[in-house]
Amino acid sequence: MIRDAETLKVLLDSVERFVQERLVPAENEVAETDVIPADIVADMKAMGLFGLTLPEAYGGLGVTMEEEVMVMLAMGQTSPCFRSLFGTTVGIGSLGILFDGTQEQKDKYLPRLASGECVASFALTEPEAGSDAASLKTTAIRDGDHYVVNGTKRYITNSPHADIFTLMARTDPNNKGAGGVSAFIVEANTPGITIGKIDKKMGQRGAHTADVIFENCRVPATQLIGGKEGQGFKTAMKVLEKGRIHIAAICVGAAERMLRDALRYATERKQFGQPIAEFQLVQAMLADSQAELYAARTMVIDAARRRDEGRNVSTEASCCKLFASEMCGRVADRAVQIFGGAGYLSEYGIERFYRDVRLFRLYEGTSQIQQIVIGRNMVKEGRIA
Ligand code: COS
Prior knowledge:
Elements: H1 5-33, H2 38-47, H3 65-75, H4 80-93, H5 95-100, H6 103-115, E1 120-123, E2 139-143, E3 146-157, E4 164-170, E5 181-187, E6 193-195, E7 209-220, H7 232-268, E8 270-271, E9 274-275, H8 280-308, H9 314-339, H10 350-356, H11 367-381
Parallel strand pairs: 1-4
Antiparallel strand pairs: 2-3, 3-7, 4-5, 6-7, 8-9
Helix pairs in contact: 1-3, 3-7, 3-8, 4-7, 7-8, 7-9, 8-9, 9-10, 9-11
This protein binds coenzyme a persulfide.
The site of coenzyme a persulfide has 20 residues, from helix 7 and helix 11.
């Protein structure tokens, strides 16, 4: 749903300008230093990107899913680490509070999140609980007015910079399944929290992940999201479902960027006396990429519209994440192929994208988890979407 085309156009124009004039020129520096410059972070805050999806009542821009997708298509045109910086806060980091938090929790945290004053991380994955998220072992045991949290969370994006964590932990150790899990807002400066060393990753330099270790960390009971135990896994699944459409849009944006770069290179690079773009085998790679990109773009916008209509989009969100992330990987591979030897050199940038986008098929649910969600829904509902 687009609420007001004029206002959206102003927002998209400013995001597109920001991407082209500020972020694209900074890509190499960020890849080398592993740090996003402070003035870029300040600009993101000033543009309202940290409050993109939060309601206007809390100081956010309150965009619809379709509007969010349009912004992410634009943000995808540059290194994914830039999106990761604010996207983790406006997405999986804060949505648990927005969806299921009490009014007091929303009033306390959402305005600070929307302004960018507070960075939020999503702490679900553990060393032994990745795809099988419901098997998580971190415990939060009630002790008077507090819960005592023990356990380790792994690959937690933005954890070195987080002010709060949306933490999923087991409040009922006798219930080993999803029903024993609760969600909490945990302030990062609570005693008993240690952040591990920043992970060395294949790509996405500038976006940082690390372990988060909880040792006898006492979290006030008022921090239990929604004030109800046993709801945390469902909160996490709802958050991830929306996050999957968001990530799919980023995949489409990144694929557009790579394909545009590949087309430009193919028209400039000459072999056998003519631009390589004139060769049909190169055109085949361009054409396959274009067709798949168009399909992914269309399905992401369609899924966003359905979600805005209030429909259940569990299947569509997983279809988008599955197709768009796999498509993005294929486009990255073809783009490197079109660049040839130059595609393997860091100075051309395409190898960096090739590494960066590999993560899309893994996080917020692997491609195989998306297949499982889609297949299960089909069998359960006895219909196709
Ligand atoms: N919205 C609301 N509730 C949901 C839901 C959704 N999208 N998906 C599942 N639930 C509910 C189910 O309805 C079920 O509730 P009931 O017990 O009341 O019926 C409960 O959550 C448990 O669901 P389910 O039985 O499907 O859980 P499983 O353990 O079988 O796991 C998968 C489901 C595999 C889909 C889930 O663990 C998953 O998504 N794993 C990937 C995790 C992931 O994406 N990690 C990335 C971390 S963030 S980078």
